[in-house]
Amino acid sequence: MTPLLLALAVTWPADLTAVGTVVGPRPERCVAILRSGGRTRVVAVGDSAFGARVAAIGAGSVTLEQDGERRALRVQTAPEAVATGEPTPPLLDAARPAQEMARQEVERRLGQEMPRILAETTMVPAFSEGRVAGMTLTRLPEGSLLTDAGLHAGDVLTSINGVPIDGMATLVGLYARLQGESTLNAVVLRNGEPVSITVTLR
């Protein structure tokens, strides 16, 4: 096939974007979130989505292949959230105070539970004054690492380790950045009140 015919044969959706990636220690543990035509797909290497095959997933990019042609999509980052007013200091979750977890156990459970977490967790943006101010966790898999850490369905996740959650791209992009942290602190709005959930990894 001539280059001109090849170029005509390969048609990428004009609005195809990479919303985020989660990079694991091995290629088969990496996932990406792709969006096109108002639909969102969570894919792994080798999966097909929007007429292309996922060839590689990296920290901040997804490589797609279609009819022998490759295209790298950079993760679309959301603009920085602008703080308005004085933040309300979060309360400690009295029902679940700061807890400790073994890092090795967390990594083991993530490896086992990631497909279920990705399939069963649903969230929608929470808006305040016309901007995304967090992500509402509308559904969480019971008995998963997320619920064991203290998150509840209905919580509005507003920040993790001081980073404002202003969209899905920010949330997914934090995964790689938090790998070396020894303390994870999430601030959520629960019944309208800010609650701090802290997990120390040992």
Alpha-carbon distance between the two ends: 57 Å
Q: How would you spell out the order of helices and strands? A: HEEEEEEEEEHEEHEEHEE
**Which quaternary structure do these chains form?**
single chain
Number of helical segments with 4 or more residues: 4
Helix content: 10-25%
Main pleated sheet:
8 strands, mixed
Q: How much strand?
A: 35-45%
Spans where pLDDT lies below 50 across 5 or more residues: 1-9, 78-89
Could you tell me the radius of gyration in angstroms?
Answer: 19 Å
**Global shape:** globular
What is the residue-mean pLDDT, rounded to a whole number? Answer: 77
Question: Could you say which structural class the secondary elements and strand pairing correspond to?
Answer: alpha+beta
> How many strands appear in the DSSP assignment?
15
Summarize the structure.
This protein is α+β, with helices and mostly antiparallel strands and 202 residues long.
What would you say this structure looks like, in words?
By secondary structure, this protein is of the alpha+beta class. The protein contains 4 helices and 15 strands. The longest helix is centred in the middle third of the chain and has 18 residues, at 103-120. The chain is globular.
